[in-house]
Hints:
By secondary structure, this protein is of the alpha/beta class.
Amino acid sequence: xxxxxxxxxxxxxxxxxxxxxxxxxxxxxxxxxxxxxxxxxxxxxxxxxxxxxxxxxxxxxxxxxxxxxxxxxxxxxxxxxxxxxxxxxxxxxxxxxxxxxxxxxxxxxxxxxxxxxxxxxxxxxxxxxxxxxxxxxxxxxxxxxxxxxxxxxxxxxxxxxxxxxxxxxxxxxxxxxxxxxxxxxxxxxxxxxxxxxxxxxxxxxxxxxxxxxxxxxxxxxxxxxxxxxxxxxxxxxxxxxxxxxxxxxxxxxxxxxxxxxxxxxxxxxxxxxxxxxxxxxxxxxxxxxxxxxxxxxxxxxxxxxxxxx
Length: 309
């Protein structure tokens, strides 16, 4: 068993594709097959099942992946320690929802790039951020969620974001100063994709209030939701940071749902057991500096996540 085999095994465990693994690692596909077969023969276990064109990680493969991540992490740590460089360089893979990428992280990116121009930031969209972080696919994750409690991650709170129910100014609900639950009954909602935390928060409140809302329009783009809402297609629920310009210009109206004041926590996460390169540590420091400064200019972090929780 050698480092090259473990690197190939880890990549295949993440991609579940021999061709994609070969392309990523710049091997011919037969080399990937030979390395995996050699590893399986040496360990005396099957690491992958091949079901037609599908590749599935076996239970033994899942166990080995855990140790491979640790071993390769230590190799990276040793390599970086022995190759000290005053001018930080290297890549950091980051996961963040569209709303944060667009409205919170540009200041972080600008500041980090100004300080460390030789470093590379890669933003990777993932549907399950915690899974991607756990499996080592990303180095740092920025999430909008209720407080994440996990023994696997370091979690740093950066501040609270306000969530708003919104409509076009000409929508009938925009004329009501204090909206009651019955006023929302049967309304068409334009929502982000399932699994989005602030959608989960809103749908939970609708269920608690006994509201039968129409939620058959689902989008992966916040900008598309805003445009459709401004055109009068329905009501939406988004972080305030994504609509500040539209509110100021009178293109959207914030709806005051009586008894509801929604807040959600902005958190920065990284894996406890994954070695942090000097570049990653520097990025965390810049993010901490820029985002907490921004948040506490606009937020009141002592507020609850939602008044009706």
